[in-house]
Each structure stands twice: as C-alpha cells, then as structure tokens.
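Progress note, sequence design subtask.
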C-alpha cells in the first residue's frame, strides 16, 4: 500500500457506518474524489482495520473497468458473486448449508453465468461473453428479466448476511455500466435493515462530464435515506509534512514543502510522484536529519503516472474548452480573465461562463479572487488546480505558435500596466524571453 497519512475523520465515518451495518442497519457509502486524491489508500486502510477488528466480516470486492464499461454488464457484481461462492465453499462451518446449493435455489440465473465446477468457480469468460452465450443471440435459454436478476442477487446477499455481516466494495463506479448501477440502486434499497454495507468510490468529474447514471442512482438512494457520501478534501499542511516523513523516513524543510505544494497541490498522488522525481534527480537530499531542496530545477519533468492522469482529464474537454485551457497555460500557473479574453479574442462574458465550467465541472482551474486592473477593468483571477496541469498543457504548445502567443501575452501586459510594470516585471521578462 502507498503512503497513508491523515484521513482520520473519514476512517471514523466509515467505521461508524460499518458498526451500524453489523448491528442490522445497512446502507451505502460513496467516497468521491479526483484521480490521485487517495480513495484507494483510504479504502485499503479501512478494509485492513475492519477485517482486523471484525474477523467474521465477509468482504466482497468488485471493480468496474474502463476497458469493458457497458460491454460488460454486471461486471463488479459478478466478481463479488464469484468471490462469495468460492470463499464459502472452503470456509463454511460444518452443518451450514453450502452456499453453492443455496445459490442454485435462490440465484440460478447467476449461477448459469458463473458456473461451478466441483469446488472451483469457473474463472474464464468475461461477463458479457457469458451473458451473450447464455441469454443472447444463438442461446437456447430465455433471458431473465432485470427484475428477476436483481431479486435473485439480493436474495443471495441477504441470505448470507443473515449468517455473517457483509461489506461489498465496488471500486471506480464512474466506469460502471448502466446495468450495474441499476443493480446497485436496487440492492441499496433492500439493505436498510440488513447486515450489509455497500462501499463505492468514484471520480466526481467523470460522472458529471459523462452524465453518468450514477448521478440519478445516488439521488434515489439518498431519497430513501440509505446512502451517504464522503468527499475527500485536500491534505492539509501537517498531513503533507507527514507524507514526506513517511515516504522518506525524515521530516522535510519548510522550503521543500512549500515548493511541492505550489506545484503539485495537495493531491497525494501528484505530491508523491513529484517528491520521488526530485529525490531521483538528486535535487532533494537529507541534511542534518531533514530533507531539503538543494537545487531548484529549471524545469519540471512531469512523472508519467501523473501526466497520464492529466492527459486523460484533458481528453474529456470539448475543443473550445481545450483551446481556453491551452491559451491560459501560456500565462503561467495564474491568469486573469480580461487578459485571457484579449489573447483568445473572445467576449468576456462568454469566456467567464466557460471558465466556470472548467472550474466547477472539470476542476482544472479554480477562482482565486477578483481584482481591478490598472485599466479600470475588473478581472477574475484564476489559477490551475495544480501547476503540473499547466506544465502538461503548455509543453504541447510548440514552434512558432508558442513564440507568437508569448509575444502577444507580453503585449497585453504592457498595454494593461502601461509605464508602471514593476508588479509584473518578472512575468513580462519571462514572456519576452519566450517570445
């Protein structure tokens, strides 16, 4: 498991939800956060503590896959079903009904898709392939209704929960197929008085951008008062300091923490990747029992893991929004809406509305302030959510186009600040040099 720091409040919240479920008050808890926010680390830590504290707890894990998506209906639930039956075949106490026999009675259709050979669950065949072969074209078995599938799965889960509490964890719900989301909503409504806790994670921007069915399912479960949500907040300064101490075995100098925070923000993944890159480049060294930034890098080589996440987020942008982000990156980590509108040749109101979408829906930038410029114009001051995002976009602006854009930015700054450019001298020098 990667470095885990902080999140005490979140762990306590999950622990209380699990205790209620064990006492017969089941429910659904959804953990939302962007890629790299620490969802996986939080869940791994919680599962470790939960299974240590409650040995009788039955943990089932299903994972949604971007690769298969809607082509693999019920994928995470099939994984959980397979794990449930397989584990019960080996550890069911003497005298208790074998779960395979129970599944034959209450979930025969599911058992057809996931056949049992002896004591082993057949592990080949992706879900969709089996569904098509069993119930689809060319098959001889009539397809069961969605209601039948949901009823059978729920009956099996509740039957097991009568003997031991269940924690069903489904990872990456933003990639869940519509059928899985529907089953999640159905199962969630049936466990309010059962020993079942359903735990799921998802990325908020992926769900919002794609108008994912999880949005509607979440609202429905909240209306039935069986679902709650945890939004992972950024790590604070003390937690980031603890991160370095856990990662490197010694505390960090304030300058190093400041430099990392300014460029990677407080996303654990970005923060950790950039820290490891600094160490690998010899830019950070241990001196007198503390890690210090011994040399400030002239440029940043974005770690590939972080870059891949950023690139994925950028691919979701419509062309007009990507152009705005691209031009904004020329200004640097911070930019104002008036100057950006001039660079883009856009109407200011139209740009402000687009910036709001980039901030609220895509979370690539954030509004910091509103300032009056020397020209008398009022401008919204934005900054990139992470300077790594700005670096990733700006490095794609190449050739003469890059030169011309920096020249144009320098001209805009000179026109805005007139003869008194002391406050922007550093930025002006940078753009003149680049242009």
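Output:
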């Amino acid at each position: 498991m990667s470095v885990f720091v902080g999140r005490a409040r979140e762990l306590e919240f999950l622990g209380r939800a699990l205790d209620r479920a064990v006492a017969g008050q089941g429910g659904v808890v959804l953990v939302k956060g962007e890629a790299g926010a620490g969802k996986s680390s939080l869940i791994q830590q919680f599962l470790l503590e939960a299974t240590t504290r409650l040995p009788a707890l039955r943990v089932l894990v299903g994972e949604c896959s971007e690769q298969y998506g809607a082509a693999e209906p019920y994928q995470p639930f099939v994984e959980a079903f397979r794990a449930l039956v397989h584990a019960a075949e080996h550890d069911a106490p003497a005298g208790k009904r074998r779960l395979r026999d129970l599944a034959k009675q209450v979930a025969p259709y599911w058992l057809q898709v996931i056949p049992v050979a002896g004591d082993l669950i057949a592990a080949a065949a992706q879900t969709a392939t089996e569904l098509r072969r069993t119930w689809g074209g060319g098959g001889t078995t009539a397809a069961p209704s969605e209601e039948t599938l949901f009823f059978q799965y729920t009956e099996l889960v509740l039957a097991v929960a009568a003997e031991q509490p269940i924690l069903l964890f489904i990872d990456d719900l933003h990639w869940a197929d519509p059928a899985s989301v529907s089953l999640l909503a159905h199962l969630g409504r049936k466990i309010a008085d059962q020993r079942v806790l359903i735990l799921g994670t998802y990325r908020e921007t992926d769900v919002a951008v794609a108008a994912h069915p999880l949005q509607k399912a979440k609202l429905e479960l909240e209306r039935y008062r069986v679902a709650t949500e945890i939004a992972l907040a950024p790590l604070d300064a003390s937690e980031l300091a603890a991160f370095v101490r856990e990662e490197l075995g010694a505390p960090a100098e304030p300058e190093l923490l400041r430099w990392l925070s300014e460029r990677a923000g407080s996303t654990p993944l970005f923060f950790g990747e950039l820290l490891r890159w600094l160490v690998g480049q010899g830019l950070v060294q241990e001196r007198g029992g503390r890690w210090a930034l011994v040399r400030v890098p002239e440029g940043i080589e974005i770690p590939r893991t972080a870059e891949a996440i950023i690139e994925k987020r950028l691919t979701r942008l419509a062309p007009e929004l990507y152009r705005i982000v691209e031009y904004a990156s020329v200004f640097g980590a911070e930019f104002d809406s008036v100057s950006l509108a001039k660079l883009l040749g856009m109407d200011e109101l139209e740009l402000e509305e687009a910036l709001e979408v980039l901030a609220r829906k895509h979370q690539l930038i954030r509004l910091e302030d509103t300032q009056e410029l020397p020209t008398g114009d009022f401008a919204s001051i934005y900054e990139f959510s992470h300077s790594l995002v700005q670096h990733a976009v700006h490095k794609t602006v190449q050739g003469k186009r890059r030169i011309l854009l920096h020249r144009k930015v320098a001209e805009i700054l000179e026109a805005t600040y007139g003869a008194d450019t002391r406050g922007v001298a550093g930025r002006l020098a940078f753009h003149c040099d680049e242009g």
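The chain has 20 helices and twelve strands. Work on this subtask will continue into the next period as scheduled.
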